[in-house]
Structure formats: structure tokens, C-alpha cells
Fold these 4 entries.
Entry 1:
Amino acid sequence: MKPPKPKPTPRKWNFNLDTYLNPYLPPSPLHLLPPRLSRFLGYRAHPQEDVGNVLGAWYSCLGAFCGLAVVAAVFDNTASIQRSKPPALIASFGASAVLEYNAILSPLGQPRNAILGHIFSALIGVSITKLFMLHPDFESLRWLAGAVSCGLASAAMLLTGTVHPPGGASAVMAATEPVITEMGWYFVALVAWGTVLMVAVGLVVNNLGWRYRSILR
């Protein structure tokens, strides 16, 4: 008589979105592009050694400055963005700058994580905030909306393989910052656009001496 199979427990449960998506996604075409272009999109035909921390500190400083400066300049000079009266810089972008231009070998700072992590978190943050706004005493519940938003955003990023810690800040800001709350769904578009700009800068600066992957895998 065969022994009964062990029952699955929550400790054994696992969900990997890529398992379901990869069969339908084409392979990365980066190796087919001209060498200079493919390099700045993160492709390397041969493994590359990492740079020392002194040179790395220079690249991270340059990247953080350029990335945030580009975002601020674009936001400040775009009339449609200025009509929503956004802050000079979205605070969560500062944390993203450290990951995207400093810890570029970390999975948490890769383009996919940065872009989708911020978008998912902002989307969840705005959605939860709008639900809480239906309560007549919303102002006293901002803290709760922020906590719920961050918790759900954290879970969503883990399940989709897009964990990017600054995304949690974007979710919280949607609930707790009155200026951001006033933007509503426009905040999601603003976060997406700003993150794409930062990743674009990263593809240039980070691939001067290091290797930063592109969104194409």
C-alpha cells in the first residue's frame, strides 16, 4: 500500500508569472542590433568584470544626478504636467535613483522592476485611496489607506516578479500626500513617465562601464 501523498501547505505554494508569460514572449533581439546600440541596451557577448567601488561611486553619482535632473526638467517644461501642480520631484524617485544607478546588479534595480514596480504600486495606491475617499472622514484615515496600499503593492510586486522597494513609497504617497491624491489617476501616468526617463538615463550612464539590462530580456 502506497503511503499517502503529503498535503500541500502554504509554505510550498509558489506563483511565478514568468512561467505563464515566457511561452508567449519572443526571445530578446538585442544580439541582432548594431553592436553600439546593443551594448547600451545591456547586451554583452562575453561576461564583463565589475568595476571597482571608486569608479562605481562616480557612475552612481553621475547617474543619480542626470536621472533626477532629466525627470525634473521634463516635468517642469511640460505644460500638461504643470497643470496638475506636481512636486518638484516625486520622493520615491530618489530611492529609485540609488537602486538604478548604484545597485545596478541587484534584481531590485533592473528596468523591469523599476518600471512595473512603480506602475503597479501607483495604480494600487490610487485605487485604494479612491475607495477610502468614499468615507466622509477620509482625512483621518489617510494613514490607513497608505498602509493598505503599501501592503497590497508589496504583495503584487512579489507575485509579478517586479519587486522595487521605492514602489512602496509611490503607493503610500498616493494616499498620504494631498497634492498626489488630488492628481488621481494622472499620478500613475506621471510615475510611469518619470520611471521610463530614469531607466533611459540608466541605459546610457550605467552601460558606460557596468552592465545594466534593458527591459528586453
Entry 2:
Amino acid sequence: MQRPLPEKVCAVCGRPFTWRRKWARVWHEVRYCSERCRRQRRGGRA
């Protein structure tokens, strides 16, 4: 039986997102669900 993947809530849009393999080493640092949300947070609306 498989365990469900860990989830977090995006700091910008508030949507839940699940763990991805590419985030395995940095999961504790991930705050945004996508590159788009990450850019909105740092640089304002682009």
C-alpha cells in the first residue's frame, strides 16, 4: 500500500500542492506551487 504524498499550501495563491521528485532534497524550503507564483511573490506583478 502506498502512502499519500506530502502536501503544502502555496504562499501566494493558497492552493494545495503535492510533493514532486525534483523537490526531494529541498522540500522543507518549497513555498510556492509554481514558477508563476514564485515570480509574483518576489517581483510583484509582471
Entry 3:
Amino acid sequence: MRRFLFLLLIGLAGAAVLVRLGNWQIQRLSWKQGVLAEIETRIDDAPVSLPADPDPERDRYLAVAVRGTMEPGEIDVLVSTKTLGAGYRVIAPFVTDTGRRILIDRGFIPASDKGAERGTGLMSVTGNLHWPDEIDSFTPDPDRGANIWFARDVPALAKELRTEPVLLIARSETDPAITPLPVSTEGIPNDHLQYAVTWYGLALIWALMTLYFLWRTRARSRSSKE
């Protein structure tokens, strides 16, 4: 009887912990969906002027419109997309009509277009401010000789192109040959539902295993008595 009660207690406690973890992930899912909805609203807001002192936290995804001069001297960042395949993001310096020098992510070009001339000069650009977190310990150093970078490291790009560490990702076209890759929530992970299903599945397995061991213990107890 003691062994039976011990197994029952362990089974109930373990299942309760696993169910609680599943419930927590459901709560996190609801929170994350709210965050993503806020980001999407911010992305789609009416564009405003470039802030005087953009902050990577406060102004992330802020919709901005600028007018000025797109300058030559781009940096090509290697990228692969689901729909367009492999190619490069074109990062170029842009001087606003107020004299500020910032970075513009103009969008995607296929690998075959690397080195082609781009449209420069006076233009208006609408997009969203962003400071992508794309650097980790496995990111290779840029190949400056071939003008190939492997991540949008805003401080490093700004130093290379002598701009402010401010990146505006264009959602308006800046050149007919460049496909804009505007900011979206697509790349923001939201795996809480999968985690919840995993925890609930483990709870079910734990409960079934507990029932099996209880049945086996009781069967053995009956067998020994007979």
C-alpha cells in the first residue's frame, strides 16, 4: 500500500508540474501575440520625421520618412529569402535634407546583379528604423575585398560608410532593380504553442506511465497474496 501511495503521489505531482509548465507557455503565447500585434501596428503607422536622437529600444520599428540624397558606396550583405532565393541586401549611405548621414537598407538584389550600377541622387524614402540582432560567435568577418558582409551589424556598417548608427529599412522602392525587403514580424520567434503542446504531451505520457505502474504494482500485490 505504501508503494502504491508513493507512486500515486509522484505521478500526480509530476503531471501537475508538467501541466503547469504547459499553462505557463499558453500565458506566454498570449503575451507574445500581444507584443507582435503592437509591433505590427508600429510598423504600419503613418511615417514621421527622423528622430533627433534615435534610440535602439524606444524607436525600433518606428515608421519614418526622409528626403535627401542616396549616395554611392553600397555594402552588400549576403542573404537568402524564401521567395527570392540567394542574393544581397544593399546597404547605402543617405544624406537627409537636414544634413544627417544615415544608412538605408534599400532591399534585395540577386547575386547576378552584384556590382551593377544603382540609382542614386535625390529621392524620398519611407521605411522603418531597425537595429537587427544578427551577430553571433559563428558570424564570419566581412570580406571587404569582395564587398560581402554576412550580417547587418549597424555600428560596423555605420563606421564603414561614415554614417550615424541608424538604419532605415526601406519599404518604398529606391531603384527598379532592387526589391524592398520591409520590416515584418515574420522573423520574430513565437514557439510558445509548440512548447505548450510538448509539456501537455509529456504530462499525458507521465499520467499514462503512472497508471501503468499503479496497475502493475496492484497486480503484483494481488499475485503475492494468492
Entry 4:
Amino acid sequence: MDTSTPADDITLTLTHHGSPITFTFAQDATVADLSERVASELSIPALNQKFLVSPKTGLLKPPFKDATLPLSSLQGKKINLMGSTIAEVTSLNDSISKAAAPRRPGPIKAATPARNRDWKKVQEEAQYTFHTLRPLPYLPNPDRSLRFLERLRDDAGIKAAMRTHKFSVPLLTEMDPAMHTTHESRTLGLNRNQGEVIELRLRTDAYDGYRDYKTIRKTLCHELAHNVWGPHDRNFWELCKQIEREVDRDDWTRGGHSVGNQEYAEGYEEEVYDHGGWTGGEFVLGGSAGGGGGETVVNSAGGTVQAGNLSRREILAKAAEERMKRARQAEEGSRGSGEAPS
């Protein structure tokens, strides 16, 4: 039997979790046909699918703006499929549920006194900590993610802040980049039900690298502040900055080296810490009817825009204005620093 591919067929190769997957389509196939094949053959529902196409095309995800986009226009381009299968999502949800379930306290063993050891500190560190660390097992190198989570848990500054504020978190886990990334922004962390579960974006969007350690640690400070305050109001930001200062002050190691120096793919501009604390598994946007909550967007120039109750379009516009302002200031500073004519 002839198994060769007809000359007029379209062949696309996708990369998913670091592995290439090849599909063959008829010449008139569209991006909607690609989504159906991924759902049926890879068990990744359309809701979880994101196709990062480079160069130029950018992010495509169902429901597509143009479902009739011909697949022939994607031939020869690099296509990165980001998305989790139903089984992977179910496994993660089961893990979160188990970690959040009430636990029976085990028997407390009597401590043996020893000189020059602060046993009160030892007991507090055992109580006020992250009791379970869980990487995502279906992503590459979960053991490396576990070491990253252990480093955060054992960070001298983080441990001191946990004791000071009496934070006890049942589960600290990593975030799947594909689940919280859009063409406009990416979420850095999540806090569910005032510290029941904290998720952190450890990896780059392509899963093949890790973000800077100090950036992730700062995101963790942000999420720990949500243990007390949900909305991004004045109370929240005062506590967040306080925790950041305490972590820096009590980090006797004076920081550490970065884990992974890879950057995000081109086309992504904005980063969002989060959207306030989770309640019942749903996002609760910061701020009240008359308050000043909301999200803070960190733009690619390093500046911040207080979102308040603005729409996404307004947030992006303000971020663009901030970048233009910084560019003008840099240009003026460059002209002002030139040498005077002799």
C-alpha cells in the first residue's frame, strides 16, 4: 500500500513539551482543522490550546479571530503548542485538593535540649513554612523545578518573613506557563483562598528555561501578602513592600545566582503579578466599588502602571505611554551627556 504523502498535502510540525509532532492536512485545511486534530489526537481540549507561531504571526488560540485562516500560510514556520491534556489538568487539580484537605496533626516528639540552638525558632520554622512542594510532573525536568521550590522554601529571608507573619501554606507549586499566558500579558503568581495554595511561574513560556531567582522570590513576597489582603489596595501594597524589605534584610546569603537566563519569545510585552487573591478557585479582581485596588502591570521598560478598575485596553495604553516617556527621557539624557564642542 502506498503511504507516501500526496504532493499537494500540507505538513505541519508542532513542538509540544519539547517534542516534535507532525500532522498532514489537505491543501484547503484551516486553523480550525488544526485545533480539531490536536483535540482528538493529543487530548488537549480547545480551551487549553495555544499556538505560538513565529516569525510574525504570534499567538493563535481558540476561538480564533479568523477560523478560516489557511494552514498553508503557516508552513515553514515554527509552531509551539502550549496546552495541557485533560489528564494533566485533572492530576494537578487532584493534587491541589489533597494538599488543601484538613490534616490530622501527628504526635509531637519531645525535643532534646541542646546548647546554642534556638529551639523556639526551629519549632516556628517547622510550623510556619510551605508544607508541601509540588512541581508539575508532566513538564520537562520536574526534579529541577522541585529544587527551585526547595530553594524558595529554605531561603533565609523567606523563612524569617514566614515566622514573623505566621504564614503557613499547605502547598507551594509551579504554574503551567501555557495556562496563564496571553498575547498581551503573563501572570507571575497566584494565591488561592488566602494561602491555601500558592502557584509561581518558574519557567519561561517555552518550558525550556527558568526565570531569574530574585524575580520569582519577589513574586512570592507578593503572593504571601495575599494571605492577609485580597484586593490590591493600600493595605495590601504596604504589607507587600514590608515583606520584600524583611526578606532582603534577613537574607544573610545576600541573594544568589540566577537559575536560567533565557528570555521570553518576542511579541510578549506585559507581565502581571496576579489579579488579587483567589476565592473558591476563581479570580477576584482587586479593589472594591469605590476603592483603588486592581492589578499592577510591569512593562518591558521596568516601569509600573496601577491598573485600578481600568480595562485591559486602558492598561495597555498606559503602559505604552510609560514606555514612550522612558524612551524620550533616555534620548534627552543621551544628548545631554555628549561632550561639549572644543
